[in-house]
Structures are given as C-alpha cells and as structure tokens.
Amino acid sequence: MSVTLKNGYFEPMVYKAPAVSETIKTEVVCPNDTNPMGILQGGKLVQWMDIAAAVCAQTHAERICVTAKINEVQFKHPAHVGDIVTIRAKITRAFKSSMEILVQAQARKVLIGKNNLISEAFFTFVAIDENKNPCMVAPVNPVTQAEKKIYKEALQRKEHV
Ligand SMILES: CC(C)(COP(=O)(O)OP(=O)(O)OC[C@H]1O[C@@H](n2cnc3c(N)ncnc32)[C@H](O)[C@@H]1OP(=O)(O)O)[C@@H](O)C(=O)NCCC(=O)NCCS
C-alpha cells in the first residue's frame, strides 16, 4: 500500500472532522427514474447515493476513491414522481485505505413540505493512488456524541464481514 506521497512529497496525516467532507445531493424524481407505478426505482436511488458517497470519500481522502462495498441498504418508504430527494453522505470512520460512509436519503412532497427518510446504507470506499493501488487516507476525528458512537460501531462492522 502506498503511504502519503502526493505530487512528489510526503504529507502529514491530518485528522479530519466528518463535517469537512459531509455531502448533500438533491434530485427531483422524474418519470424516467420510476417504475410503471411511478415509484422511484431502487437502483436509481442507490446510484444517486453512490455518487454522494463518492464525493464525500474523495473530499475526505483527497484521492480518487472506488466503491468496495454497499452494506445494509434499506428502502423504508417509496418516493414518487415530483418528490424532492435529498441525499446526505457523511464519513463515519477511515481505516488505512478504506472509509465507511453513512448515506441517508429523504424525500419531500412539495405540497406537504415534510421530509421522510426513504433509504439508508453504509458504503465502503477505498482510496487509490496513480497506479490504482490502495493508499493511506487521513483518519477521522469524530466530534459530536453521535459521530463518536457511529465511529466505534464502524470498527465492529468492518471486523464482522
Ligand atoms: C477496492 C479495491 C481497490 C481493493 O483492492 P485490493 O487490492 O483488494 O485491496 P486490499 O485487499 O489491499 O484492501 C485494501 C482495503 O480495501 C478494503 N476492502 C477491499 N475489498 C473490500 C470489500 N469488498 N469490502 C470492504 N472493504 C474492502 C480492505 O479491508 C482494505 O481496507 P484498509 O486498507 O482500510 O484496511 C479493488 O478490489 C477494486 O478495485 N475493486 C473494484 C472497485 C470498483 O470497480 N468499484 C466500482 C466503481 S467505483
């Protein structure tokens, strides 16, 4: 695994708070995104979530990152044509080259104006160097109580797969 040689120089490992790379992506559900019942397709939603998670991972790592695993995907409620879908991706923990990102998607009906959690999942991304080999990423510094809790749990998730 390559360490932190970047642009010809070694860089110090700087702890980063999850807020630094938190990513919000917003979409409007269009007819092409839905099944014949007008319900947002699961695959389309996961694609949007994957993009938000990739932006989050790459912002944290300052490297190109690839999806290694998508875990515990849940579709809790349907979203329909016209709904506004807001996807929030936040890093829970970084290991050596891999990072766990929690992604949550909410849908809002314009006329009702209330957000509804429709899906959540844990994505694992791996940072790669110029030769496409995994490379070290900055560690995460959890700040809030919720961030500290999910940081601890991330190790258990990594060890139990
Ligand atoms: C992800 C990938 C870079 C890992 O490469 P590799 O040589 O197998 O890496 P290693 O075995 O040295 O593991 C490197 C890290 O990835 C993690 N990892 C590898 N495969 C994983 C998987 N399936 N699930 C979770 N983590 C995984 C390892 O735990 C390790 O983490 P750490 O460095 O934080 O301890 C490689 O498998 C790959 O390129 N996969 C295809 C990715 C892809 O095309 N994604 C879709 C498009 S973005």
Structural account:
This protein has 161 residues and is of the alpha+beta class. The protein has one domain (5-159): Hotdog Thioesterase (Thiol Ester Dehydrase, Chain A). Helices cover 24% and strands 36% of the residues. It is built from 3 helices and 7 strands, in the order ββαβαββββα. The protein starts with a strand and ends with a helix.
Helices and strands in order:
Blueprint: E1 5-6, E2 9-10, H1 18-21, E3 23-28, H2 42-61, E4 64-75, E5 84-94, E6 98-108, E7 115-128, H3 145-159
The protein binds coenzyme A.
Coenzyme A (COA) binds next to strand 4 and strand 7.
The mean pLDDT is 93
Q: What kind of assembly state do the chains in view correspond to? A: single chain
CATH superfamily: Hotdog Thioesterase
Bound molecules: coenzyme A
Q: What's the order of the H and E elements?
A: EEHEHEEEEH
Query: What would you say the CATH architecture is?
Result: Roll
What do we call the CATH topology?
Answer: Thiol Ester Dehydrase, Chain A
Largest sheet: 5 strands, antiparallel
Rg on CA atoms, Å: 17 Å
Helix content: 10-25%
Domains counted in the coordinates: how many?
1
Strand content: 35-45%
Identify the overall geometry. elongated
The CA-CA distance between the termini, in Å, is 21 Å
How many extended strands?
Answer: 7
Point out poorly predicted stretches: none
Structural class: alpha+beta
In short:
The protein has 161 residues and is an alpha+beta fold. Helices cover 24% and strands 36% of the residues.
